[in-house]
Amino acid sequence: MPQGVELTELDKKVLAFQEQGCLVPKKSLIKTEEQIEGIRRSGLITTGALDLVAQEIRAGMSTQDINDMVHDYTIKHGGIPAPLNYEGFPKSVCTSVNEVVCHGIPSEYEILEEGDIINVDVTTILDGYYSDASRMFVIGQTSAENQKLVDVAKECLEIGMKAAQPYGFVGDIGYAIERHAKKNGFSVVRDLSGHGVGLEFHEEPDIDHYGRRGTGMLLVPGMVFTIEPMINMGDWRVFVDEDDDWTVVTEDELPSAQWEHTFLMTEQGLEILTY
Ligand code: MF3
Ligand code: CO
Ligand code: CO
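A: This is the predicted complex of the input protein with cobalt (II) ion.
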């Protein structure tokens, strides 16, 4: 440590965990007040875009229409849609219908029908700060089993949120989520995870939605990350569409549902930054 640099109480506390052999976050993963305010402002756009989708989404609309809505809203509010050109992703939002797990690419040829379930995943950059959230939308009325999947996936996010406690561990989150999914006869996608977010789209740590309590990185106030469980009606296995290299689909082609928020860890537990 450079001379004259004082350790804060938080630094000392984290150091003590590290000395016990815990995996602890590096300093850049603990956001400053200024950074948190930036991510919070970015989150307002993400939430606003999803609220707009909630108002407008209906049968007969294409997923391209949803893309355009999110794109225009984001730009109008001074933001940048993070998915556009991200590692070659061609659109401004992910739209994942029925058996598509995530990373669905909007298309003018994909028309929403009564009974479809769709995840819309919005990530905004505002003044360099990233916020990431997604919701499920049901087009009209869907089957009872689809509705249960959508509801249980949402409960999984809420339960994961409650399981995340300051000075707990990343594994506590996945343990709680997997338990709830399994109790309801559903499975948890293992190939994709939540993630640190804020200064970049995807930061450390990965937040698995399955796992064991007390494992993985220590959760420290000031960390900002997503929880975004993908819950499958059937088997947890998925594949990536070979034609577009993006679309993630369930192997058994049964439906999948996902909800996501960006969270700030505080001394009192998680605060939602995309509410
Ligand atoms: N928003 C997704 C997530 O929750 C990532 C999408 S990457 C993209 O992490 F390129 F498909 F947009
Ligand atoms: Co995310
Ligand atoms: Co997302």
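The pocket of MF3 (ligand 1) is lined by residues 83, 86-87, 89, 94, 103, 121, 123, 132, 226, 228, 260 (CB under 6 Å). The domain at 22-272 is CATH 3.90.230.10 (Creatine Amidinohydrolase).
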